[in-house]
Amino acid sequence: MGTLLVIILGAVFVAAALAPWLHRLCGDRTGLVLSAVPLAATGCFAAMIPRVMAGNAVVFHHAWVPSLGINLDFCVDGLSLLFLLLISAIGTFVTWYAAGYLAGKADLGKFYLYLFGFMGSMMGVVSADHLVLLFVFWELTSLTSYLLIGYYHNEPRSRAAALQALLVTGAGGLAMLAGIILLGRMAGTFEISALLRLDPATLVSQPGFPAILILILLGAFTKSAQFPFHFWLPNAMEAPAPVSAYLHSATMVKAGVFLLARLHPLLSASPLWLPIVAPVGAITMLVGALLALGQSDLKKILAYTTVGVLGTLTMLLGLGTELAVKAAMAYLLAHALYKAALFMTSGSIDHETGTRDPEALGGLRRAMPFTAAAALVAALSMAGLPFLLGFVSKEYFYKALLEAEGPGMLWEMLGLAASVVMVALAATAGFKPFWGALKPTPKPAHEAPWLMWLGPLLLGAASLKTGLFPGMVGDCLVGPATSAVLGGAGESVGLKLWHGWTAALALSVVTLLLGAALYGLLPRIRAARGICRVLGRFGPERGFELLLHGLLSFARWQTHLLQNGHLRNYVLTTVLFTVLLVGWMLPGIVSVPAWDTMVAPHVLTVIVCLLIMAGSVFACVSQSRFNAILAMGVVGLGVAMIFFMFSAPDLAMTQVLVETLALVLFVLAFYRLPSFGQYSGRAVRWRDAALAVVFGAVMATVVLVVQSSHAPDNAVSRFMGEHSLESANGRNVVNVILVDFRALDTLGEISVLAIAALGVFAMLRLRPRGARKETKP
Amino acid sequence: MELLLAVTIGTVYAAAFYLLLRRGLVKLVLGIALLSQAVNLLLFAAGGLREGAVPFIAADETTLAATGADPLPQALILTAIVISFGVLAFTLAMVHRADQSTGTDDLDDLKSTDAP
């Protein structure tokens, strides 16, 4: 079965790669064809349920980079299976939905490429059994999410939101990578199942563990949009509705929650777990709920409630009792079912009426009966009405909070407040647009194509079925997931619809009543939504913007400083650092030969050297181009003399030829060259001269060092000297080297000359079209 | 002799560097030409200086005498001389063309990709 899992993963990625091509072939039917893949995957994952229920994980092992201990390990236990089923089933519905929602778009093939790339990556995240592999898939989900949020890439807002999501989750991902590496090194293994088998107490007591915990939590919190990183998620609503439904409510944003759950047996052993995770979750829950109240856009409302739910899940995992974990798993399943449906129905409303403002919508149930039905069921589940999974999960939520230790009734009150808001907003999203009097909309409303209501309707049916018979889903999914999160400790007790007359039930009833009251007050609250905007101005998003702005300004400043566009400054910087570094090293290695050991130079050598120096200096100070070129000739011929005097006749001959040619070239170009201008001021010239003298002194020392450290006998030269006559039949060894031993080098040299000649020809002869016209008046 | 040659090479380097720091395009070309002379000389000096010991195999020998000058650096320098000539020709043509197209040889006016 492990192989089957890998085949499914491969099939999803292959489907992604084939999508653009398939779209060219099938047009708008692509979505239906492609949806066969996640549909089949759903079936395969469902077939794994009995095995996982029995406590046997599906595993696959393949060595990837054995030298680094990185393997392609996959392991599907209860937690993974719950996620895999959500990803594949909702993925099927979303593919259908996208086929309707984005019908006729030219780049739909590209969209499916991203969407299936995401689907495969997400499946990889939840089934990977190796921390590095998990990270690779984790980052892939960030990347595909970036591409999907920015799908409407002509919209600047869309691009900005995509970039923001990528930066926030990417930064968290980097922190997580650091945490993973530290954890793997500390524990000696990157394999997750092996890590969880270790004794957590010994790991947690290591001094570096708090850093690991915080780094990994940063990754989870950014991905799951926890406060203060929550702001990217509502902005990501610039994405098309199917993307929002899939990535930003049902699956990707839960990857952070998944990571917390996956590593729960290990990380929760730390004394820091409860005081960090539970409060962050609670704050996120409240912030999400409060900010959602002020929104006047269906998608934004749903986005902020998603933030709130992610906070709830994090809080429950932070509390970490068996009941809390079970509540988290049930809540997660219930939320995925209803929120994906609501995102899709709100997208349908937008698609068919042209507006997403709940105030402008009403009475759509006659025009859009199927969408209305799906939205109603989903909203009822969100509100937590009996006989829906939302009710069951809320019961367990309250039970877990009632059981949790904490100051007074704190957890219960926080949970109640958030749940009350959920009820009111569920009515806003799933009830208000469809009931009451029909309101005129920008586009006359009509039912969406069947592709767009079938998925939400099936999701609604799933909420209803699991709500009516929670025992089954409890045994099959929630139970095994809970025991996986608790490290196999928890009993896989199923869910129950009826618990008797308990405090949790009382809280549920109070929630519904207060929620209904709040719904009545909503128009008045929205009138005060200016407060939300003011809060937004000082919120963490503002901090993110400032940080980004500062980073960009800094980058501009230092680029301007280092890459100022002045060639001479680059040369100056390079030479200055060379001088400093070489000057730093030289005193250690230099052994200046004693004066009396030096050979006194021949008088001719002295004259030639003086000529070279004079020519060089004169070329610098001369105000006339002609004199400077002559001075260059003097230097060149002087160098030729040096070659000649020190046993290099070939070099001398070449140098004389080349110098003559160069002089001819200079003189030919002479009348065309621009005349010397005096551009730099006196101070700059003196500064440059001083620097040049320092540089010259360093180079002179280098020459002294290399001369004294020259090894007289090197094997390569000796080989060439010995074989020159024998193998190449030549007595002039330099020539033999050039045309025989290193003939390819010489060929390369000739090619360089040919290319240079072509370049010269092109520059002198060819004119851009515009310039040619100018010369022909 | 070593000292004399070291000072000479240092002076050529200094002059080349000074010319490379100028704003005028022609001086820059002169600096490049001088720099290649300095580098060739440095390589030559690093290969060891011998007088009257050309790297030829004598008529009655079959191998190069151990006292002969090292042929390898000479072969490398020979290549370098020819290449630097190619570079010089290319640079001269480019300067000429730049002057024609832009009418200036001040490098500060040639900073942007748009012609003034």
Protein architecture, described:
The complex is a heterodimer of chains A (777) and B (116). In chain A, 75% of the residues lie in helices and 2% in strands. With 777 residues, chain A is mostly helical. Chain A folds into 3 domains: 155-547, no CATH class; 567-734, Four Helix Bundle (Hemerythrin (Met), subunit A) (Up-down Bundle); 742-777. The longest helix of chain A has 32 residues, at 156-187. The radius of gyration of chain A is 37 Å and the shape is elongated. The N and C termini of chain A lie far apart (81 Å). Chain B has 116 residues and is mainly alpha-helical. Chain B has one domain: Helix Hairpins. Chain B contains 3 helices and no strands. Chain B is elongated, with a radius of gyration of 20 Å. Chain B starts with a helix and ends in a 14-residue tail after the last helix. The mean pLDDT of chain B is 86. At the A-B interface, helix 26, helix 27, helix 28, helix 29 and helix 30 of A face helix 1, helix 2 and helix 3 of B.
Largest interface: A-B, 103 and 90 residues
Q: What is the distance, rounded to the nearest whole angstrom, between the alpha carbons of the first and last residues of chain A? A: 81 Å
Shape of chain A: elongated
Main sheet record of chain A: 2 strands, antiparallel
What's the assembly state of these chains? heterodimer
CATH architecture of chain B: Orthogonal Bundle
The helix content of chain B is 55-70%
Please identify the top-level CATH class of chain B: Mainly Alpha
The overall pLDDT of chain B, averaged over residues, is 86
Q: Mean pLDDT of chain A, as a whole number?
A: 88
Q: Point out poorly predicted stretches of chain B.
A: none
Amino- and carboxy-terminal Cα gap of chain B:
52 Å
Number of domains of chain B: 1
Which strand-content bin applies to the residues of chain B? under 5%
Class per helix and strand makeup of chain B: mainly alpha
